[in-house]
Design brief:
Blueprint: H1 2-32, H2 40-63, H3 75-88, H4 109-127, H5 132-145, H6 163-172, H7 177-191, H8 200-211, H9 214-217
Helix pairs in contact: 1-2, 2-3, 4-5, 4-6, 4-7, 4-8, 5-6, 5-8
């Protein structure tokens, strides 16, 4: 009986958190919807506020669990939510300041994430025997179908992704040693996985799932 009650409590906890986060996501999406008559600054502020409250909801939900009693392990979430709140009220929270001595990057964090995932797909296909051009072309098709675009305008007026763009990402990937190391470890660990072996079909499925996942789609 106790196990059933514990299960029911967990289900209620999950459903409550889901409802709260769904509400925050709806507010976030509404704030970011393209509306020509809206002030971009107003859009940014509303989206930031929705994000801060989503973090607060997540923090409160986790803090209610005995495993996080006293908020242990949750301080980063709390501090980030507070920093976002400070930001929209005119503050300059230290947590959200650019690292000293580092210039403004050409790519956003989200764009770098997309590049990292695409390069990972290429490296997996190369491990399976694809040549570089074929691997880049295959990944370009998958990510392009998912709506990911290149920065440069093509002759047809589009910003479609092609193998040349992916190749540039692959060539520049080693410039970020930490991220490139993560890519290499991912490929090596998957290659050694006997329960879910790396195959061409599995890699392309992984690439499609990744390209269509919220972390990528929210950054297009």
């Amino acid at each position: 009986m106790a196990d059933r009650e514990d299960h029911n409590d967990l289900v209620r906890w999950v459903l409550d958190l889901q409802a709260r986060l769904y509400t925050r996501e709806a507010q976030y999406r509404l704030a970011k919807e393209a509306q020509p008559d809206r002030d971009p600054e107003e859009v940014r502020v509303e989206a930031t506020v929705a994000t801060a409250f989503a973090l607060i909801d997540l923090h409160q939900a986790l803090a209610a669990l005995p495993q996080f009693a006293g908020g242990k392990g949750l301080l980063p979430l709390q501090d980030l939510a507070q920093a976002l709140g400070d930001l929209v009220t005119g503050g300059q929270p230290v947590l959200l300041q650019r690292r000293a001595g580092v210039g403004k990057g050409k790519d956003t964090f989200g764009r770098r994430y997309i590049k990292k995932q695409a390069v990972t797909g290429v490296k997996c296909l190369q491990f399976l025997g694809y040549n570089e051009k074929a691997a880049c072309s295959a990944v370009a098709r998958v990510f392009s179908d998912a709506g990911v675009k290149g920065r440069k305008r093509r002759q047809d007026g589009s910003h479609s992704l092609d193998h040349g763009t992916i190749l540039n990402w692959v060539i520049s990937a080693p410039d970020n040693a930490e991220e490139y190391g993560q890519i290499q470890r991912f490929v090596a660990e998957w290659a050694a996985d006997t329960k879910a072996p790396m195959t061409e079909a599995a890699v392309l499925d992984w690439a499609r799932e990744t390209a269509n996942s919220p972390p990528v789609q929210s950054k297009i």
